[in-house]
Amino acid sequence: MKFDFSRRKMLGVFGGALAGLLSAPAARAAKATVQKVFASSGAPNGYDPYKHKWLMCFDVDKCIGCGLCVDACKKENHVPEAAHYFRTWIERYIIKKPKPGSDRLRGEVLVDSPNGGRDGFPPTSVPREEILKSFFVPKLCNLCEASPCTQVCPVGATFDTPDGAVLVDPNYCIGCGFCIQACPYGCRFLNPETKTAEKCNLCYHRITRGLKPACVEVCPTEARIFGDLKNPVENDPIQTFIAKNKVFSLKPHLGTEPRTLYANLDKEVR
Fold first, then answer.
1. Looking at residue 243, what DSSP letter applies?
2. Residue 73: in which H helix or E strand, if any?
3. What is the DSSP secondary-structure string of 19-37?
4. What is the percent of the chain where pLDDT is above 70?
5. What is the Cβ-side half-sphere exposure of residue 159, based on CA atoms within 13 angstroms?
6. Helix, strand, or coil here: 233?
7. pLDDT of 192-223, one tens digit each?
8. Contacts for 151 with CB less than 8 Å, ≥ 6 apart
9. How far apart are CA 202 and CA 94, in angstroms?
10. Portion of the chain with pLDDT greater than 90, in percent
11. Residue range 60-94, pLDDT digits in tens
12. Which residues contact 258 (CB under 8 A, 6 or more apart)?
């Protein structure tokens, strides 16, 4: 779908509306513009991004590394089958015991992710008696509030939405790869078929219709928790998770302000 305006111009108008700098009629016009742009996002007609605030959380202690989430994401979002293309993946961390006589509390840290964890993980070659701790960590787009990818995109193809998602419009993307280089979490790739940038979009075509992301839907241990902060339900899983856990984000020192949160996150995770 093509438009007679640039997304960068639209975002400028949209930002002004949010700040209260535009009159009510102009704000309504800006909102209508956002709705038109959302037509290419997979959201249904009438979906109002202002009425939602999506959040993804992970309980590291519950992840068993089964890979069902990775496989579901590949199939749901038509991610290229090649082993190095993933919208979400799982990493295995193995922390070895310190060597005898060492004054360190921990030894070497090993990280692997064979085929993104899609097929599960083979037994480690590290002897059990040498392992201090091992665990699995799901990874995907961190939905940064101060996202580097949106800042470097020269055509505005990558953009933030009012409901907390960060999307890529393939109709605008020119495949320059700037966003891929700017992402400090390695969450983006260039689709070899479409030649456009790609990443997790929270299964936007699903969540805007009241469904869960595919990865959340298939997780057998409920290690992935997803919800709408603006529309809590009875015994809301997101509200309960945040209330009961101390949550962390990845690489907080970068100032990207991720909106993907983790509980029971080990300090070795990067």
1. H
2. helix 68-76
3. TT-S-HHHHHHHHHHHHHH
4. 85
5. 24
6. coil
7. 999 999 999 999 999 999 999 999 999 999 99
8. 182
9. 28
10. 77
11. 999 999 999 999 999 999 999 988 999 999 999 99
12. 142, 143, 144, 145, 249, 250, 251, 252
CB 68 within 8 A of CB 58: no
Structure tokens given for 186 = 């390695």
Residue given tokens 């310190």 in the structure block: 98
Query: What does the alpha-carbon distance between residue 91 and residue 96 come to, in Å, rounded to a whole number?
Result: 16
What CA–CA distance (Å, rounded) separates 223 from 58?
A: 6
- State the burial class of residue 63 (Cβ atoms within 10 Å of its Cβ: 0-12, 13-18, 19+): buried
DSSP 8-state class, residue 264: S
> Do 94 and 108 contact (CB within 8 A), yes or no?
no
Domain ranges of the chain: 41-270
SS3 category, 3: coil
Tokens 């089964």 correspond to what residue? 66
Beta strands in 77-216 (DSSP E): 89-96, 109-112, 131-139, 158-160, 166-168, 189-190, 197-198
Are 37 and 11 in contact by the 8 Å Cβ rule? The answer is: no
Residue (of 253, 153, 237) closest to 199 by Cα position: 153
Q: In the predicted model, what is the mean pLDDT of the chain?
A: 87
Could you tell me the pTM of the whole model? 0.83
| CA-to-CA separations, 67 to 80, 83, 179, in angstroms, rounded | 16, 13, 27
**Fold exhibited by the domain 41-270:** Alpha-Beta Plaits (3.30.70)
Q: Which of 138, 143, 195, 193 is nearest to 167 (CA)?
A: 143
| Burial class of residue 95, CB neighbours in 10 A (0-12, 13-18, 19+) | buried
**Using an 8 Å Cβ cutoff, are 162 and 10 in contact?**
no
Specify the pLDDT at position 67: 98
Task: Report pLDDT for 82.
Answer: 85
Q: What SS3 class is residue 41?
A: coil
